[in-house]
Specification:
seven-stranded mixed sheet; mainly beta; four-stranded antiparallel sheet
């Protein structure tokens, strides 16, 4: 099995910043794409940021300029830095990894989510 564990969520003030981390463990040969999604109450889950195995990145328009995604391949970990936080950033943030297993197959895994609340 593969498990993704997110950390770094919590209560932050408007204008502040946060750093989320997601560590993958289990039967992993390598990780292709790594990303962060978020879902607010009553809203559809949306992509926040994505990083490929080659390091190319993609950001949602709502966070572009305030957000940085990075990865540590040796530790199977992806990080998300989000600055200048706004109340509309409040959501449950989910880690998503495309994992290569022991047979060379590509499998998608999700973390359990971590709550981020931005207070005003």
């Amino acid at each position: 099995q593969v498990q993704l564990v997110e950390s770094g969520g919590g209560l932050v003030q408007t204008g502040g910043s946060l750093r989320l981390s997601c560590a993958a463990s289990g039967r992993i040969f390598s990780i292709n794409a790594m990303g962060w999604y978020r879902q607010a109450p009553g809203k559809q889950r949306e992509l926040v940021a994505l990083i490929s195995s080659g390091g190319s990145t993609n950001y949602a328009d709502s966070v572009k300029g305030r957000c940085t995604i990075s990865r540590d391949n040796a530790k199977n970990t992806v990080h998300l830095h989000l600055n200048s936080l706004k109340p509309e950033d409040t959501a449950v943030y989910y880690c998503n990894n495309q994992v290569v297993d022991g047979r060379g197959s590509y499998l998608v895994y999700w973390g359990q989510g971590t709550q981020v609340t931005v207070s005003s």
